[in-house]
Amino acid sequence: MFREMRAALGGIPKSTDILEHIYGLPTPGEREAAFEAVRAVERRAMVAQRPQPGLAELMRHLDVRGVRKAICTRNFDAPVAHLLSRFLPGSAFGPVVTRDFRPPKPDPAGILFIARSWGLVRRLDRRHGQGQGPSFGKGGVEAENAGHQQQEDQATKTEELVEAAQQGTEAEKRGALGPAEQDGNGEGKGEQVEEVGDASALIMVGDSLDDMTAGKRAGAATVLLVNDENRHLAEHPDTDLVISRLDELIGVLEEGFVGRDIAEST
User: Fold this and answer.
1) Pfam families given for it (predicted)?
2) Packed helices 28-47 and 77-87: angle between N→C axes, nearest 10 degrees
3) Please, is 252 exposed, middle or buried when counting C-beta atoms within 10 Å of its C-beta (0-12, 13-18, 19+)?
4) Per CATH, which fold does 49-265 belong to?
5) Which of 12, 31, 218, 247 is most buried as measured by Cβ atoms within 10 A of its Cβ?
6) Which of 204, 182, 112 is nearest to 151 (CA)?
7) Over the stretch 156-169, which tens digit does the pLDDT of each residue have?
8) What is the pLDDT of residue 136?
9) What are the residue ranges of CATH 3.40.50.1000 in the chain?
């Protein structure tokens, strides 16, 4: 599909990020025309969309155990809504982060937003430049805060489109920053201490380098769904674990696994 997208954009090279290319076009009209060309490719692919092997089994396992699920994708919302309504009508996903969210993967901001919306946070003391709790990848704090408004707008839009598939709450739509700290007199200290998303308890499952890089930078464990085209990513430093079917993740969740960073440091 990416080959078709690049061709639709005039044959841009593989080394050029598709979204960066579009955002870099000089006029709003050119950008919208480029986005529509990409959306046309996605619509055609959507018609032929098939569930990954093991998807139904994995979803049943997660749903029975009440494991929360979210989506972070560079696709626009229609293919996501199609996937959820056609193949996963009984499974709840939220938040759903799509192309309207900026910055997109490989930036970690989308994953950090998901963590924050689930109440997974750490406290960052800007007075000392340190956080309380697990740290996350380079650029994580800045990326999460920079994308705050796009996150709120996109989450709301996507919820309207896939309402039946989501369990969104007001907490899921709050921004990247938590309540201001209070001093001894009950007065706010401004934004010296913040709550930011902590993805160290999350697993990012994907099939692209953007997925692995975003997950690693966010501080999540990364799982590559390997195929013939992405097999080279199995040895990439941002990939913690490799599976060939989605239901292989069931055993991983039940038994646990050691991430690459931990294994290499022991």
Assistant:
1) Hydrolase_like (PF13242)
2) 20
3) middle
4) Rossmann fold (3.40.50)
5) 218
6) 112
7) 443 443 443 333 33
8) 38
9) 49-265
What confidence tens digit (pLDDT) does each residue in 201-231 have?
A: 999 999 999 999 999 999 999 999 999 999 9
User: How far, in whole angstroms, is CA 206 from its chain's centroid?
Assistant: 10
Which token pair is 56? Answer: 């139904």
Q: Is 224 helix (H, G, I), strand (E, B) or coil?
A: strand
